[in-house]
Structure formats: C-alpha cells, structure tokens
Amino acid sequence: MSKAGTLDLASGLGGKINKAEVKSAVDEYEKYHGYYGGKEETRKSNYTDMVNKYYDLATSFYEYGWGESFHFAHRWNGESLRESIKRHEHFLALQLGLKPGMKVLDVGCGIGGPLREIARFSSTSVIGLNNNEYQITRGKELNRLAGVSGTCDFVKADFMKMPFDDNTFDAVYAIEATCHAPDPVGCYKEIYRVLKPGQCFAVYEWCITDHYDPNNATHKRIKDEIELGNGLPDIRSTRQCLQAVKDAGFEVVWDQDLAEDSPLPWYLPLDPSRFSLSSFRLTSVGRMVTRTMVKALEYVGLAPQGSERVSNFLEKAAEGLVEGGKKEIFTPMYFFLVRKPLTE
Hints:
CATH architecture of the largest domain: 3-Layer(aba) Sandwich
Radius of gyration: 19 Å
Strand order of the largest sheet: 3-2-1-4-5-7-6
Number of strands: 7
Mean pLDDT: 93
Order of helices and strands: HHHHHEHEHEEHEHHEHHE
Helix content: 40-55%
Structural class: alpha/beta
Largest sheet: 7 strands, mixed
C-alpha cells in the first residue's frame, strides 16, 4: 500500500517544501545539530521548524525503507520485521486495554501506519496528531486506500498545544514520537489534560540509558549522530522521562526498557553485518543502493538538489543507532504505561 518505487521516492523528496528550496532547507536543518556545531537550546527553541523540516525531508525515505510504520520493535527469533512491528503495536493496544468504541489519540502519528493497525486490531476510533502537513496529506490518502477513513483521521497541531478539550480521550499513546518534544513535562501535561480521568497513556520513548557517559567522546558523537538523523532536540535518559511523566501528574503502572530482553537486537535491520531479502532496503547494501539511486535522480533533475545530503544524514543516523544499540547506551523502546488519577 505504501509508495515503493524509485520515482515515488523521488516525487516525495522534500515533502511540502518547494523543490527549489530543498537544498537551503537541508542547510538550515543541519545547522541546528551538534554534529555541525549547533546548540541544544537552539534546537529546543526552534523545534517546530526543525522537526517539520526533518519530516518534509525524510518521510519519503522512511516510507520507501520501512513502509507505513516508522518505528523499531522488540523481536522474537523466527519473526519477520513486519510481524514484529505489528506485534509491537498490538502489545501497546493490549496494555491500554482498548475496547470497541473507545476514542483514542495517537500523539505524533507519522503517516498513520500504527493508528490504522491499532484501529483495526481493537475496533476503536483513532485520531492522529501531527504537525507536518505532508505526512497528514499522505496519511489521509493511505486511510482512504485502507478503507478506514470512517474510524481514523488526522489533526494538524503541535503536541505541546493540543486543540482538544480537557478529558476528551479514552486512551492516548505515542510511538517514538514525543522524543521530539523540547520539554517532556510540558508534552506529558498536555497528554494528561486531554485524557479522561482513570484512563491510561502508553509510550515507546527514545532514550539514552544508564550506560551512557556524557564525558565519553564516542558516546557524545553517537548521540549527536542520532539527533541529527532523527530530528531530535535532545535525547533524554530513561530516568528523566520517568520523572517527567510523574511531574506531569501521572501514576506509573509499570515501565521497562523492552530492548533489554529482546531475543533479537532492535537495530538488526540496520546492522551492516546482516543481509536480508525481506527488508533489503534497510540493510547496508540496500541503503548504499538507495544512496546511489538518489544521487543519480538528483543529477538528472528528478529529485531536488539536496536530496543526496538527506540520504547521507539518514545514513549517519543508521550508523549511530547501530553503534548506540551495540554499546547499550541508547534504546528506542523505553516503555511505560501510566494512568491519570480518577481524582486530582
């Protein structure tokens, strides 16, 4: 169902950015990041611009490589990547106790792969919150093709300032999305506000672990690469995220870094030592083919100027993610389930 061909990738590069302005957008995006000398405070104060530029520039690459669900997954032996991604989404729905008829919010929903899967799995209605116009346009088309437009929709808004009344949703979840928030407490407080009392919020967070050493130059480089290649203002620790959700008012039901007991490493699809026909585009060979292809498309004018540089910083992110995973200093699946108290 996702766009899969070379020309589809080329046509989507740059998202809603004018094709003639993609190169300058790449320039501006790169300058935000520590890898190029940018400052954390600048990223946080300009997070809306930074994250929007990132997803305009990167979404077509994600869809080309990953399909409709842009996230990693806890994975069992003998399980395909696609199967693990679906199970990762089903696990979240089960933890939330979703039931038919419930109204659910997906915070930072991408192009809506998870919300479509969760809506069908649980017979719920899911609203996807997203601040990127290109992803919403793409997501609505995928909803139409999947026949779920009646139960799945999108709202364009900043998750730091949601356009919903208090106590609107029966459940809220976020999958590798609230890591883009400049202030986790502020983001979690907004989620707390729109969630009904007694109901739950579940999240997979991108975090640095207790193994991360801020004084280790290699660790710092890996963190910078991940932030650059994934549009992040900062990567918070698991402890910071847990404290932030408590400070927002939630009661913690349980939390765990699901990467710790995953039978197969979460970073396996990006590991250069691995080859897979089923997820070829994610392998080091597949990424090299994509990089070469994008360079050729840019050369002949089918892809906008700057596209190869986007491919390059996404490649740098893949390297940082694999190295961070192997050193156990980074996880994309710190999970916690929290509840809004019945009475405040």
